[in-house]
Amino acid sequence: MVDHLHQSGDIYATFPLERPKQTGVCFIHRNLEGNARGATIRRIDSFTGSFSIGEKQGAWFAVGDVGLATRAVLVEAPIDAISYAALKRPDDTAILAMSGSHATRPILDAAHARRWELAIGFDNDRPGNAGWKHCRQNYALLYPDDAQPSRSLPAGKDWNDDLRTAPRHSQGRRL
């Protein structure tokens, strides 16, 4: 999956030669038309976390084909989108990273316009639960006749925690 995301131009490694401790991964945010509009940069140095640049309202890091999806799952971070996809292996689903525990108006409008079955997979913590409640309330106010979003809750704090604790299957490779 990671190789495919790299080949499609959705993720890149960052490795500044003069500051190797700032090595990280750049996750490209695309709008619904597929145009790059920003990025989330996650440093591998666990003390610095991640930051987003560019568009966060109408462009997101996505796993899956947004144009062909019949279902969308909103998660907080790009690594959660990859982890969710690895755990659930959804066929007709786009997993979209919101860069936080909130669903913006453009993504709610897109879910309505595309008739996506919408699931909220924010973290299993206070901000994630608050984000889920706000999303459900906002969607009900905006689109009261649509099916309302469901909650997809990780067992641990987030989908990456769930992936790290999942049993590993052999890749079938020989050295």
What radius of gyration results from the CA coordinates?
16 Å
Give the overall form: globular
Strand content: 15-25%
Tally of extended strands? 9
User: What are the segments in which pLDDT stays under 50 over at least 5 consecutive residues?
Assistant: none
Secondary-structure class: alpha/beta
Mean pLDDT: 85
Identify the strand order in the major beta sheet. Answer: 5-7-6-8-9
Question: What would you say this structure looks like, in words?
Answer:
This protein has a single domain, classed as Rossmann fold (3-Layer(aba) Sandwich). Helix content is 29%, strand content 25%. The protein has five helices and nine strands. Strand 8, helix 4 and strand 9 form a beta-alpha-beta unit. Helix 2 packs across helix 5. It is globular, with a radius of gyration of 16 Å. The model has no long low-confidence stretch (mean pLDDT 85).
In short:
This protein is α/β, with parallel strands linked by helices and 175 residues long. It is built from five helices and nine strands, in the order αββββββαβαβαβα. The longest helix has 17 residues, at 126-142.
Q: Topology of this protein?
A:
Elements: H1 2-7, E1 11-14, E2 24-30, E3 36-43, E4 50-54, E5 61-63, E6 71-75, H2 78-88, E7 93-97, H3 105-113, E8 117-120, H4 126-142, E9 150-151, H5 159-165
Parallel strand pairs: 6-7, 6-8, 8-9
Antiparallel strand pairs: 1-2, 2-3, 3-4, 5-7
Helix pairs in contact: 2-5
List the defining traits of the structure above.
175 residues, alpha/beta, Rossmann fold, five-stranded mixed β-sheet, 9 strands
